Amino acid sequence: MSDAQDATLLRTVRTYWRAFAPAWIFPAIFLFGGLASDRMGHPNLFFFAVLPLFFWSFSRATGPWRRGEIRYWHGAFWCLVVPFIVWGVAVFAHLAVVGR
User: Fold this and answer.
1) What pLDDT is stored for residue 45 in this prediction?
2) Cβ–Cβ < 8 Å for 78, 19
């Protein structure tokens, strides 16, 4: 537990990036997969197919915090804030391409 208290935000991501990566990638998959399935006419099917992926990626990302290996605020940043930023960038990228 003392290692978790001494760790910096960058050391946390260098050590646990494999656990956080699915949560970082999920917002883009959800947005672009949802748009593609909507164009194909099956938006509800995609939503229910990707729902277990959401829970798995969040569970995997919060694993180091639940085991007490990282601080709460480091986990909150890498598990919640960064995926929200990725989602925002994906939305604005999509809007820039569509508006073009």
Assistant:
1) 86
2) no
Residue 3 is predicted with a pLDDT of 63
The mean pLDDT of 65-84, rounded to a whole number, is 95
Residue 5: predicted pLDDT: 61
Residue type, 78: W
1 DSSP 8-state letter: -
Q: Which two tokens stand for residue 90?
A: 């994906």
Q: Is the pLDDT of residue 59 over 70?
A: yes
Q: Is 43 exposed, middle or buried (0-12, 13-18, 19+ CB in 10 A)?
A: middle
- Write down the residue that tokens 């509800």 correspond to: 44
What amino acid occupies position 77? F
CA–CA separation, 74 and 67 (whole Å): 13
The alpha-helical segments, DSSP class H, found in 1-100 are: 2-6, 9-40, 43-66, 72-76, 82-98
Residue 21 · residue 60 · CB < 8 Å: no
